[in-house]
Amino acid sequence: MSDALILSILTIVTASTPLVFAGIGELVVERSGVLNLGVEGMILVGAVSGFALANLSGSATIGVVGACVAGAVLASLFAFLTLNLKSSQVATGLALTIFGAGVSALMGQSYVGIAVGGLPKMNMPGLTDLPVIGPLLFGHDALVYLSFALVASVTWFLRRSRAGLVLRAVGDSHDSAHALGYRVIRVRWGAILFGGACSGLAGAYLSLAYTPMWAENMSAGRGWIALALVVFAVWQPGRLLLGAYIFGGISILQLHIQALGLSVPSQLMSMLPYVVTIIVLVVISRDSARIRRNAPASIGKPFHPTA
Known about the structure:
By secondary structure, the chain is an all-alpha fold. The chain has one domain: ABC transporter involved in vitamin B12 uptake, BtuC (Orthogonal Bundle). 72% of the residues lie in helices and 0% in strands. It contains 13 helices and no strands. α1 crosses α10 (222-232) and α2 (39-57) runs antiparallel to α3 (60-84). The mean pLDDT is 86.
């Protein structure tokens, strides 16, 4: 396997990892019956918070933790407005994206053009130096492995744990779950905070690993792609991981086509991931029976406890 091909695969991994984090967080949120369209804003706030803290402290770990906290704090605002004050989930989510973009631009003014060392690659003695499979499997940063562990953990949580079954019950019928004595609002608060932390983690990966620098609106629509991935995966974590790597590969494809010198307008290639996203959603929407079978029945519906 050539060095160029190995480099291409490694690039796809780094492009896909933020989509995995943001997508798996939103999947849990939607499984609880809540639709949060503010993923893009939370990614941006996580990106600037993680970069700023890493720059000030000199520790990428502090930056990553801070980004998770920042994403969760912004998500808590959404949770309070939609769960406690019963505001529209769609309108509040869109407002959260606009708010996050503005706040991140304000916070990041003094960090534009500053670079950090980024997340270090893990070195596993005896494994990282293996030909071909060494750099492909054992030469990534810690967050790449965390993304796989997170998908596996969420899969187990939703399918095997009692708490996961309760969360799914709340998403499928919040009235029935409430009648059985489950605290619907508390469950949804937990899911939203988890989703916010994952979006913040996606932002930290963008500013500390993918492009170790801060730039305004650097998420470039990845939050919207993460939302589309949840539908593409029909709310299944394993399918979401696959979809994230497919979309990550498409986003990298534009760079390789330009490198080959093909006379394709750069603007058209930049549009490619988003055009594919639209096409995929159109194709999936035609299978309405499958979507109804897998989608949480209470998604987007406000909960009004009767007692």
